[in-house]
Design goal:
three-stranded antiparallel sheet; flat
Length: 356
Amino acid sequence: MFAREKLDALLDRFDIIEQTMASNPDAETYVRLSREYAELEPVVGKIRELDAKQSELADLRALSTDQDTDAEMRELAEAEIPDLEASLETLGADLQILLLPKDAADEKNAILEIRAGTGGDEAALFAGDLFRMYQRYAEGRGWKVNVMNVSDGDAGGYKEIIAEIKGQGVFSRLKFESGVHRVQRVPQTESGGRIHTSAATVAVLPEADDVDIDISPEDIRIDTMRSSGAGGQHVNTTDSAVRITHLPSGIVVLQSEKSQHQNRARAMQILRARLYDMERQKAADERAEARRGQVGSGDRSERIRTYNFPQGRVTDHRINLTLYKLDQVLEGEGVDDIVDPLIADHQASLLAAENV
């Protein structure tokens, strides 16, 4: 199942990292090695457990066929072999998943963007429901949510809301949320009780570091303008809103909070994340053109999930998963019941690609 040379190389590398970290290296080296150590530790633990079980199995098999061994001992050894073989099979499957190619962005923080789509006021209300769902989910996992920019809906909810989510493994858990989310329900303003269908788009971008994306000053145009609130009323008397245009890609980011300095910094943060995501998408398309329709393709133009209120149902169309626990999902408590199967399906597709 595994190339022994690859497993031994991982064990040797782990030993080298341990020895180097124990020799008091400089801070930058220590931080870099600590990250690699954290990535390798679960893999090395599984390899060592697998080696121990394989050694134990070899001993049992030898014992069960040794005619000089007491007959009762041979029977006991034979009885233990099936359970040990099953345990080895499980360990092998776990190790195979751990050895899959890692998404370099998985451990990054994320920029969450939610925009109301078709459906007018109802779409904005649904965008608000989605943001609260992710906010509660983040709180449950100990993540921090920081709203960066918001445009309120006329009847509540949001026309657009952008937030930064910080914590361990944020992008790895949320990256499959990108796409069109559809809601089916009876709006409060609907007197005839008819079910309406509305939609909102979700984009989850890995937060880019300076080393990930280098933005040349010549490639951007920065405009400042007066911030305005609802009804065109001025928020303050200074030109505080900032619009940054990335000329090569045409990406435009607008930040309109009160502080011009903060707006500029946040707009650059969002621009960097969008450019980084664009580069990741381009690379993914080149690597997996034939698998564009699978989970993880990141195609945000397609409908990925439907929230049906009359039936209390949530359906993820990519993996044909239906849960009759709409309330728990919207409260954030049931989000893992969708995320975990999506991750498992993605891992299965990676395993299939590895074995082609």
